[in-house]
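Lab notes, practical 5.
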Amino acid sequence: MKKKISIFAACVVGVVCLAFGASAAGVIQYVQSEIRPDFTVVVDGQVRTFQNAQGETVYPLLYDGTTYLPVRAIGNLMGKTVYWYENEKRIELKDSTSTVTDADVIVDGQATPQPSADEISLDRAKEIALAEAGISADGVTFTKARLERDDGVQQYDIEFWKDGVEYSAEIRASDGAILSWDVDRESQQSAPQTNESGEISLDRAKEIALAEAGIGADGVQFTETQLERDDGVRKYEIEFWKDGVEYSAEIRASDGFILSWDVDHTY
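Output from the prediction step:
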């Protein structure tokens, strides 16, 4: 069934500048338009609101008597994934079960990377990253999800946020192997705090890092173990190798909280 969109207007609230392609030649023209939080978008009798990749509410724009919605909002309404082709400055909406960022897939370079028949899909790469993080898709905001080629290897570059924690992964398209993994909890405000006199030892920081890696100390080679201060925070920098895998951690000295975590599989 075709969706019907009704818009009810009240008053002018704000003014912003927009850039429009003034012709097929791609000439950019800057104009003034109004942000209209007073406009209500109703689809099939249901009020709809729209958000950007950071979870912030975005509103319709009014320019020269015409109402505009962000591409992400249009993708949401149509159930499409938004693709952005950097070189061509082209936006494409394709069938998908979810829309996660203003440009769900960012395609750089002259050629458009596409998975081959025997490679995993973008959605499967996202599932692998979420499974590695041990979280569900509920409340997740993807900030990057794209297929790219690095040294001849096709891999997915995935970044997403949940509950103030940032996760990053590089996933090989041929088999779904996680080539690198990073967890950054520095922005998590609810992390526990203790007084400085109760700081953990270097040995304890190493134990925490090994436990996070899920490995024992046998055969581990530590390449960096030092205590440093960064923006007033004392933390341990721990790097070590085992079985061809490199692990890196930043561990807060006050309570052993893992601020960042990286796993690099050197296949």
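Observations recorded by the TA: The chain is about 10% helix and 45% strand. The chain has a mean pLDDT of 77.
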